[in-house]
Amino acid sequence: PRCAQGSRQMAASSANGSAGAGGLDFQDYDGGHENVPLHPDAPKDDAPLLPTPTGHTEQPAAPGFASMEYYQQFFDVDTEQVLSRIRASIWPKNDDFLQRIRNRSDLYGPFWISTTLIFVLAMAGNIVEWQSLSDDGQEWRYDFTKVTFAASTIYTYVTLMPVIIWAYIRWRIPNGPTFLETLCVYGYSMFVYIPVAIACIASRRALVHLILILLALALSGGTLVVNFVKAVGTEKFGDKTALIAMIACAHCALALGFQLYFFQY
After folding, report:
1. How much is the pLDDT for 19?
2. Under a CB-based contact definition with an 8 Å cutoff, are residues 191 and 113 in contact?
3. Distance between CA 96 and CA 255 in Å, rounded?
4. What single DSSP character describes residue 48?
5. 134 or 41, which is more confident?
6. Do residues 224 and 192 make contact, with C-beta atoms less than 8 angstroms apart?
């Protein structure tokens, strides 16, 4: 009896479902949306959700002082520019060196000139010492402290002296050369010591070494004096005298240190 009653309930449910399904009105809308016109103000599928601002382009941020991109601009020079500046720095009569580098100063030349001079001086000093000891029959050993002494002396000189000269000129003349231009002049002025140090190897006479060092002092120091005195451009005798005295005293002390430490027999 229970089975019969369950069968009658399932039959009734099936009948009700069929009747309900027959009462629904189903429609097929496949593809129908393609023919429906869009409202004129309705956004299209490929249109951006937010309006794009007109008349405004985003500018790239300038590189920071601590980033490598900031210093990359100071090494953007070619070989011809470096050689031209080296030639201009050798002869003191070329008082247009500052004009050559105006707004186009670089650190490439000063860095590599200073670095090359460090190793050339250390090499020349060790060879001169070896020649001196071999003449006396003494044993020679490579002195690595000559490299550290040359590095500390030259890097300090080409950094500290431009700061002093630039600060003095700026104090007297507000529109004088920039610090980078001053650093560039000092860096290129050191080039003449490279061939002089190599020439000192060819002679074993201390007098010849002294003459060569004095020649480098005159050429390098003369380039500094001529360019910076012209940059001052003032009729005040005291300003020029003080500037020449600072450049000459520091340059003479540097040359004397080269002679006594690297080329003294």
Report:
1. 47
2. yes
3. 25
4. -
5. 134
6. no
Collect all residues with Cβ–Cβ distance below 8 Å to 116 and sequence separation of at least 6: 194
Average pLDDT, the chain: 77
Radius of gyration for the alpha carbons in the chain, expressed in angstroms and rounded: 41
Name the phi and psi angles at 203, rounded to 5: -120, 145
Q: Is the pLDDT of residue 235 over 60?
A: no
**Residues in Cβ contact with 130 at an 8 Å cutoff, skipping those fewer than 6 apart:** 140
238 or 79, higher pLDDT = 79
> What is the model's pLDDT at position 204?
79
Residue keyed to tokens 């001196």: 132
d(CA 6, CA 229): 119
Distance CA 96, CA 226 (A): 9
Cβ neighbours of residue 34 closer than 8 Å, sequence gap 6 or more: none
Cβ 168 vs Cβ 238: under 8 Å: no
Query: Distance between CA atoms of 85 and 112, rounded to whole angstroms?
Result: 13
pLDDT band (50, 70, 90) for residue 27:
low
What count of other Cβ atoms lies within 10 Å of the Cβ of residue 238?
9
CB-based contacts of 173: which residues, under 8 Å, 6+ apart? 231, 232, 233, 234
More confident residue, 24 or 166: 166
